[in-house]
Structures are given as structure tokens and as C-alpha cells.
Amino acid sequence: MTKTYFATVSSGLEEIAAKELETLGAKEVKPDFTGVHFQGDKELLYRINLWSRIIFRVLVPIEEVKSYNATQLYKSVQKINWSEYLEPDQTFRVNCTGSNNNLNHTHFTALQIKNAIVDQQTRVFKQRSDIDLNAPNIIINAHINGNHCLLSLDSSGESLHRRGYRPAMGLAPLKETLASALLAMANWDGNLPFLDPMCGSGILPIEAALKALNIAPGLYRNHFSFQHWKDFDQSLYNKIVTEAKNQQLAKIKHPIFGSDKDLSVIQQARSNATACGVDKEIKLAQISLEKIEPPTTEGIIICNPPYGKRIGNTEELGALYKLLGDILKQRFKGWTAYILTANKALSKQIGLRTSSRLTVYNGSLPCTLLKYELY
User: Fold this and answer.
1) Is the pLDDT of residue 167 over 90?
2) Is there a single domain that holds both residue 195 and residue 326?
3) What is the DSSP letter of 237?
4) What confidence tier does 174 reach under pLDDT thresholds 50, 70, 90?
5) Which of 41, 113, 164, 311 pairs as cysteine with 306 (C-beta 3.0–4.6 A)?
6) Which residues of 230-269 are buried (b: 16+ CB within 10 A; e: fewer)?
7) Among 27, 343, 20, which residue's Cα sits nearest to residue 177?
8) Is residue 181 part of a domain?
9) What does the pLDDT read at residue 24?
């Protein structure tokens, strides 16, 4: 049966996410602010949760109800038959976004929805579900927009950017979803050698390896929320997982490199790559930027140097950006470089002419992905 879904995504990545969803088989794909609407069946829902590299979660709308104030919201939520979605012996949590004049605190709004659900359960079953804020069986998403509230089931559970392979985190790491989005924006799919000369804890090289090996990132997760749903089809899910495992490649076509001047973060990167099972496919090394040399005659560089928002001093970083530009110009002829930065003044220090500029957000920070053709 075809249903309508909504995939949440970081601001600025809606179009990239829409293309990914279409590739995975989604129909009627329509990008929206920080999300993408699409249609598909249960198999598609499972497949997208397992395979998406860019989105955060997939929501399944239940119903849009009136929510002028707390009383109306409570009564509206009570009209829904929650036994179709939640058993009294299951735990749940309500996540809320949005607001109106009368419902302007998300915690209060979530509490009204929770009360309406458990009061219905108590009346019908003489027992009620417990609330679990950390690892609930069922997650209900509520979004207030004007005088209406859209209630949805969260099929993913923990955000899909949490692949499950990263025990070690460096300073201000990229989310895995953003790292994968940068690879997509650079049109990199394993077709050329890849280098991140400031790789930190290794997220970009690792996501590159997962893509090059055609590994579904969801395979590293313990479970998804849809596995607790009443209509969960275990055999269908097993089939999709088996297919994903069978589609993995044994070897990458072109080498993947990551380096950093800090030995401790390279050790973190190695730990993460080992946890991910791609440590043999990534060549990680402690190399300071001034000593970096092109490992091959051509390839793609993608890096996320510090830009003074979270790490480092803006004035001190000017020299780093100038050094990066000089090295790219002098040593990496034949390569294409992509640099993510949130600091326009620092980007000017690179001293190279960009061939394109793409807007993207790193969390709440507006950034630009700068492309340089190196000849």
C-alpha cells in the first residue's frame, strides 16, 4: 500500500536529499523546508532507513488535528484510536516542534499529547504505556503549524546520522549525513582517488569508503523504530538487509586517503574506521599540511578546515587558509578541491578562483562549499 512520508534533512540539503530518495525508488518527491515529501510502500520505507546517507529520519503522518490551544489539542488527540499504533505494554515518547500563540512551549505541547494518549489507554485498557525518553519503542512526532498539529510516527528512532560506528569524536566533527552530502555535491562516487588533508576523526574518508564499497549505512545500527510497529514485516526487512549485504563490493576502485597533523585525532580516525570495518580501505597518516603531497596524479579533495566559529582564532587561521591555497596551487595540478567554510574572510585567504559556490549548513552555521579546479 502506498503511503505519504516526510524525510527530515538539514537546511540546504533538501534538493540533494530529494535526488537520493528518487534513486532509492521514492515517488512524488517534493522538497520542502528542511525536509522532503515522498510516496512509497512499506518496502521503500525500510529501504530508505537502511540506505539513506543524507536524511535524518523518516516520518509517517497519522493525522492533522486542530490545536488552537491545549484543551482543543488534548480533545483532538483523544479522537485518534491509538491502539492502532501503540500497545499499553510498549514505551513511547513525544517529540514536538513548532508553536502558535497558545502552544508556545514544545515540552508543554508534548505533555498534552502524552496525557491524551495515556488517558485513552487507561480508559480502554485499564493500563497505560510508560514514557521512555532515551530508548522508547514508539516515537510520536508532533508539529504545530498555526492552529493545526500534524501527528506522525517516527520510523527511524535515533537520527540516521548516528550510523553506530563512531566511538571516537574529534573537535567539531561533521555529521555523517553532511559528510555524505558533500560527497554527493562533489559528484564523487568512488570514481576518482579521494583525499581529506585535514580529516580529524575521519568522517569524510569513512563516508567515502562506505559509498565506494556500496555499504548501506543503516547496517551498522542495532534497530529502527519501525521494528516495534504493529505492522512490522520481519521477513520483508530480512530480505532488504540480505539484499544490501549482497550488494556490497569487496574492494574500492580508487584509493581513499586521510591525513591530519594531530596524531591523537588520526588515532581516533583509525579507531572509527576499524569500528566501521573499512580500515583496510582507507590510508590514514599523520602529516602536517605543509608536508602534504598528492598521492596520485588526479583526484578529489574535500576538507572541512576550522573556520573560527568553534575551533581556532580567526586571525591565526588566515595563515592556514593561505597555506592551503598555496599547496593546492603548487602541488595538486590535475585535482579538484572542495573546501567547506563558514568564514568569507578566511576563504579569501585561499587566493584561488572558485569555479562554483554551494550554500550548505553545518548544524546552524551557514557555510559555503567552494570548488576549485586546479590546473
Assistant:
1) no
2) yes
3) H
4) confident
5) 311
6) eeeeeeebeebbeebeeeeeeebebbbbbbbeeeebbbbb
7) 20
8) yes
9) 98
What pLDDT, in 10s, does the model give residues 18-28?
Answer: 999 999 999 99
N- to C-terminal Cα distance for the chain? 53
Name the band, by pLDDT with cuts 50, 70 and 90, for residue 310.
Answer: very low
CA 203 to chain centre: 12
Edge-first strand order for the sheet with 138-145 is: 27-32, 35-40, 3-8, 57-66, 148-154, 138-145, 92-99
Average pLDDT, the chain: 94
Kindly state whether residues 110 and 255 are assigned to the same domain: no
Gap between the Cα atoms of 297 and 192, Å rounded: 10
- Are the C-beta atoms of residues 210 and 53 closer than 8 Å to each other? yes
Check residue 175 and report its DSSP letter.
P
> pLDDT tens-digit profile of 346-355?
999 999 999 9
Residues 243 and 318 in one domain: yes
Q: Is residue 161 part of a domain?
A: no
Q: How far is CA 303 from the centre of its chain?
A: 18
184 and 139: one domain?
A: no
- What is the average pLDDT across 287-296? 97
- 190 — alpha (psi -120 to 50), left (phi > 0) or beta? left
Both 187 and 92 in one domain: the answer is no
Place of cell 569513512: 206
Per-residue pLDDT, 364: 86
Instruction: Give 131's DSSP letter.
Output: B
Note whether 49 and 162 are within 8 A (CB): no
Residue-wise pLDDT for 231-274, tens only, equals 999 999 999 999 999 999 999 999 999 999 999 999 999 999 99
The structural domain count of the chain equals 2
Domain span at residue 274?
176-214+223-373
Q: Is 363 left (phi over 0), alpha (psi -120 to 50) or beta?
A: left
CB of 80 within 8 A of CB of 65? yes
Q: How far apart are CA 366 and CA 341, in angstroms?
A: 9
Give pLDDT, residue 172: 53
Look-up of cell digits 585525532: 265
Same domain, 121 and 184: no
Using DSSP's 3-state secondary structure scheme, residue 189 falls into coil
Residue 313's pLDDT band, with cuts at 50, 70 and 90, is: low
- 93 occurs within a structural domain: yes
Note whether 196 and 341 are same-domain residues. yes
